[in-house]
Specification:
Blueprint: E1 7-13, E2 17-19, E3 22-23, E4 30-31, E5 37-38, E6 44-48, H1 52-55, E7 60-63, H2 68-72, E8 77-80, H3 82-89, E9 98-101, E10 104-112, H4 118-123, E11 129-133, H5 137-140, E12 145-149, H6 153-163
Parallel strand pairs: 6-11, 8-10
Antiparallel strand pairs: 1-6, 1-12, 2-3, 2-9, 4-5, 7-10, 8-11, 9-10
């Protein structure tokens, strides 16, 4: 039968992210005459669980992924997408560094590898993201959206039912 690969709550939110002299407040979307993006672009910020990467086809290349304990302990940690890592840290390893998110400290625990490469990656924002434990919305605010399941529609209902008990989140990978 069908299997649920993973399930995560998801929410997108806006906040000012800064590290040193870099601040998302000063970043904008600019393009040159050929339609190629120019300069630093602000990252998209998401809430997720320890299964966000499974549901979004992301692989850790540095450090670690979000863990269930990060949710349970309200840890102020985050994982950077490939582009966001480059924007804030260049070629330096971001793991262990601390970002300011609306003035709150969040430690970078991992970096995801790129989902897109070459020209497509330069034009697309898919890897320009930062993922936070969904429980840190207590600090940062904003509501969660509906759960996202990496599966086909008829199993989503079951997945949502399973998610009513967040403790079961870690066992909802089949």
């Amino acid at each position: 039968g069908e299997h649920i690969a993973g399930i995560t709550p998801v929410g997108r939110f806006d906040a000012t992210v800064s590290y040193g002299t870099k601040s998302s407040a000063n970043m904008q979307y600019n393009w040159d005459e050929n339609g190629n993006p120019v300069g630093d672009r602000p990252p998209s910020l998401y809430y997720g669980s320890d299964q966000y990467s499974i549901c979004n086809n992301l692989q850790i290349v540095k450090g670690r992924d979000l863990a269930w304990l990060d949710m349970e302990h309200y840890n102020q940690v985050c994982v950077l997408g490939h582009q966001a890592a480059g924007t804030f840290f260049g070629s330096a390893n971001p793991v262990g560094k601390v970002l300011q998110v609306n003035g709150h400290n969040f430690e970078v625990v991992g970096v995801y590898g790129p989902r897109l490469t070459g020209e497509a990656a330069n034009r697309d924002e898919m890897d320009n993201l930062i993922v936070f434990p969904y429980t840190t919305r207590r600090i940062l605010g904003f509501r969660l959206w509906m759960p996202t399941a990496a599966t086909v529609p008829k199993t989503v209902e079951m997945a949502v039912a399973r998610m009513e008990t967040t403790r079961e989140l870690r066992s909802s990978c089949s």
